[in-house]
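Page 42, continued from yesterday. The earlier attempt failed because a stray header line got pasted into the input along with the sequence. Redoing it now with the clean sequence only.
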Amino acid sequence: MRRLLPLVLVLGLVACGGDKNAQTTTIRLQPAPADPGKAAVQAALAAAAAGKTDELWRMLSTRSKHRLGPKLRKFENGAADGLADRFGSLRNAKVIVSERITPEFGIVAVDGRRNGKRAVDAVPLRLEGTSWKLELGSPVKIRPIGPLPGKHEPVVAQIAAAVTGPGGTGTAVMYLDGHTENPKVAGTSSNATMYANFDPALDPGRHTVVVFASDGGEAGATAWDFTAGKAG
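This time it went through. Structure tokens are written below.
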């Protein structure tokens, strides 16, 4: 995400008559987070772990509130439980991707443990004013094609995902192990396949995949992991 520098505002207060001994007052504002997107997602994880669904509600984008609410009470009686479980069950989460993709959208992905097993998750973010908000329930859907989540494949020379949406101009980005790839895209604006080929094949071990896609004024993201190489 874009870095925001700390701001120090200095005001010179001069009394009437031009007093040479005029005082200078320094107002030090709290610095903005170095990575506001990362801070937003970490705050959401903390709120979910604490069961604070009202705080989660405030972290949602306006469009997400309409989709998952549109009022707090309906959110608490519906989508809140699933969201709290998804975020709240993630432990020791480490940010592996945090990037502003377009002027309006960004993505943050984390790698941690869920129910004792390694797990990776990704959240698209929408900039509203000066705040990054969680963009959830989007009509843009991303489905892993291969390798499938959690699978162990002897040789992996390609990763792929399917992207569906309402159709329109958009942006798609794929990350492998936190690094941006240059995938090929085939299909239509409402139903496309993203894939990246590797020669040589991927090194043995665990790998993470993160995919972001925007379609018009909507955005979605997903993440998964897999293992390459011979099973031990």
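Notes: The first helix runs from residue 36 to 49.
Reminder to self: strip header lines before submitting.
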